């Protein structure tokens, strides 16, 4: 058995050029960066430290007796990264811990947008004996409980996928306009208001005391005559979901959901399950269901074995032919969020959504590529009370790449006083209902094209543009 490699850790300034400055702790190095170089980097996460392994033992202080087998490493003041060369440490910090917004403006950039960005950058760091306090302007703040993806992930993924999230700082003007357009559509409840009778019925129902709400919902429902089947189904979803909500309004506040799974099963699952039951377009599997599409798309043609470990989802929606349409992840309970969990689930949902699209590509290789680009894979992520719905599809202008777009955001009401939040929840449900109806048409068209019922020129095949020969 070989002895572990000894690695001596030092916190050395990677910006000092005249003399090497070494510090005893990450905090001291961070304080030096602020005071001498006006560079602010984040502190380590609570409890984050370098851990010894079977192959490596870290020495945090210089041994009294020199060790010829010891390797010298310089360590990052913001995480557990270490390396032998200062230039590598400098690149690591720049790539992972300093955002573009923290960098100085070009001198000749005097546009209004540049001035706005400069104002957003304004920050002042105050150093005390035990802490560094960074004050900044109250501008460009991300929304509460939003999808969370690191800036460097947006950059790394931009060759593969266009990520139309409000928090993506790398969007061009055209892409930012698409994001703003979608936010405006949500804020105006455009899809919900398209169901005029259902929207009016929902508004009246929310005016009722919770003790009278079930009676109103079932005693005075809108007449189905003259309504489309889609709107009739939507009204039934409203009836069942609000009946469940009114029953839970009787609950003693002392019994509020304390765990991630309890809130998910109690408050979130009924919304999507009722949508599935009333439309009969989807079925759902809940809580630790295998990501079967990821397993299928990760099979290597060299060994015919999956190259990906089994992943599990908090929810998966599929149609009567076992084709997956939607994956769902609960990233937190009702009150407490672990940001690391949210970040992981945001990336995980994007990863699995691509697997859903790839599964359809494998199944309908001889369909028309333009038809395939209309297939949408849906994801839902919950953070505290907030649900975020996204769609993923092939990029029609860039074969092989994807477009991921945030579509709707809504807070799930848990008390009667929060009942107004149902408007945005049902805006999300209405959007899904409309999109699912179109999905059925797209999948039918894909099947007809692939079977030969609808003629497709070989040059237009999905496999002609995407698959290896």
User: What share of residues is helical?
Assistant: 40-55%
Pattern of helices and strands: EEHEEEHHEEHEHHHHHHEHEEHHEEEHH
How many domains? The number is 2
Number of strands: 14
Strand order of the largest sheet: 8-14-13-12-11-10-9
Mean pLDDT across the residues is 86
Number of helices: 15
Regions with little confidence, pLDDT below 50 for 5+ residues: 100-109
What portion of residues belong to β-strands? 15-25%
Structural class: alpha/beta
Properties at a glance:
469 residues, 15 helices, 18% strand, C2H2-type domain-containing protein, Znf_C2H2_type
How are the elements arranged and paired?
Elements lengths: L4 E8 L9 E2 L2 H12 L18 E4 L10 E6 L6 E2 L2 H11 L15 H10 L1 E5 L4 E5 L14 H7 L3 E4 L8 H15 L2 H5 L1 H11 L6 H7 L9 H20 L11 H20 L3 E8 L1 H6 L14 E7 L5 E7 L8 H25 L5 H4 L4 E7 L2 E9 L7 E10 L10 H30 L10 H5 L3
Parallel strand pairs: 1-3, 1-4, 8-14, 11-12
Antiparallel strand pairs: 1-2, 4-5, 6-7, 9-10, 10-11, 12-13, 13-14
Helix pairs in contact: 7-9, 8-9, 9-10
Protein name: C2H2-type domain-containing protein
Organism: Actinomortierella ambigua
InterPro entries: Znf_C2H2_type
């Amino acid at each position: 058995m070989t002895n572990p490699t000894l690695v001596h850790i030092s916190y050395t300034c990677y910006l000092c050029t005249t003399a090497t400055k070494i510090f005893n702790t990450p905090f001291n190095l961070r304080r030096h960066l602020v005071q001498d170089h006006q560079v602010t980097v984040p502190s380590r996460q609570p409890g984050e430290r370098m851990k010894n392994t079977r192959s490596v033992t870290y020495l945090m202080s210089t041994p009294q007796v020199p060790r010829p087998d010891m390797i010298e490493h310089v360590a990052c003041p913001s995480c557990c990264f270490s390396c032998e060369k200062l230039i590598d440490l400098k690149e690591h910090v720049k790539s992972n811990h300093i955002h573009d917004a923290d960098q100085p403006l070009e001198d000749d950039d005097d546009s209004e947008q540049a001035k706005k960005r400069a104002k957003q950058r304004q920050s002042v760091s105050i150093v005390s004996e035990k802490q560094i306090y960074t004050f900044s302007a109250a501008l460009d703040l991300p929304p509460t409980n939003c999808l969370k993806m690191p800036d460097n992930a947006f950059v790394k993924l931009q060759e593969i996928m266009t990520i139309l999230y409000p928090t993506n700082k790398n969007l061009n003007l055209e892409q930012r306009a698409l994001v703003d357009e979608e936010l405006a559509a949500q804020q105006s409840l455009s899809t919900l208001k398209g169901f005029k009778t259902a929207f009016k019925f929902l508004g009246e129902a929310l005016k009722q005391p919770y003790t009278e709400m079930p009676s109103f919902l079932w005693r005075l429902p809108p007449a189905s005559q003259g309504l489309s089947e889609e709107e009739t189904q939507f009204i039934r979803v409203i009836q069942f979901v609000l009946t469940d909500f009114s029953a839970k309004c009787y609950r003693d506040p002392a019994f509020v959901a304390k765990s991630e799974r309890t809130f998910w099963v109690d408050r979130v699952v009924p919304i999507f399950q009722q949508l599935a039951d009333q439309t009969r377009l989807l079925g759902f599997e809940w809580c630790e269901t295998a990501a079967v599409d990821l397993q299928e798309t990760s099979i290597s043609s060299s060994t015919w074995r999956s190259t990906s470990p089994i992943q599990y989802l908090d929810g998966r929606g599929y149609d009567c032919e076992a084709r997956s349409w939607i994956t769902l992840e609960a990233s937190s309970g009702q009150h407490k969020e672990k940001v690391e969990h949210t970040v992981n689930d945001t990336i995980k949902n994007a990863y699995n959504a691509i697997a859903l699209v790839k599964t359809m590509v494998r199944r309908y290789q001889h369909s028309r590529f333009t038809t395939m680009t209309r297939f949408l894979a849906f994801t839902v992520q919950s953070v505290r009370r907030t649900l975020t719905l996204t769609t993923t599809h092939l990029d029609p202008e860039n074969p092989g790449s994807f477009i991921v777009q945030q579509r709707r955001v809504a807070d799930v009401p848990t008390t009667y006083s929060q009942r107004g939040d149902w408007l945005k929840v049902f805006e999300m449900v209405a959007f899904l209902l409309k999109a699912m109806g179109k999905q059925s048409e797209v999948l039918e068209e894909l099947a007809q094209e692939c079977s030969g019922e609808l003629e497709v020129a070989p040059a237009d095949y999905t496999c002609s543009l995407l698959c290896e020969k």
